[in-house]
Specification:
203 residues
Amino acid sequence: GNNQGILEYDGVSWRMMKVGNETNIRSLAMDESGKIFVGASSEFGYLAPDPSGNMRYVSLLPFVDKNDLDFSDVWCTQSTKEGVYFQADNKIFRWDGKKIKVWNAEKSFHRIFKVNNHLFIREREVGLLEMINDNLVVLKGGEEFADETIYAMIPFPGGNSAENILLCTKKKGLYILKPAQKENAATGSSSFVLETFPTQVDP
């Protein structure tokens, strides 16, 4: 995707597909079936073949309540088992194949991350959250990232767990998320705890 639309390459030539409002493409994601979902400026949807077999863009805005259409760029799109998430600055939308669910930002959403089938959200002035039972729950210690940018969250198996996650920040270095002890985790609380990741730089 680029500022003109969605590019498709058939092995020989490129074809441009426009989204509904002919605006910038900000994010793409593919679900387990191979369907491609698109986040754009004030627009999101998916690609599907037309009767002749050519891919075309299908908007999901008709499923969005008119009171939730006040969003701009959809910076991140993530496919999960619960559905496909589309993240703008002020809202997160989830499409489950039938309907749209919406979460509104308390301040401003920065980015969403999908790691090991968990969905994490960094919200400016709030911190790092996890989607738990359709609720945005602040991780214990997640306030550390209220004013610190997170650039990446990636699987980092090691130690006693294959579920560890490495978290990379702009200025504060690396952190590691480890699964919380189930017997100590309250219902509805985050399933991870935050630890500083030790690093050493040789002089």
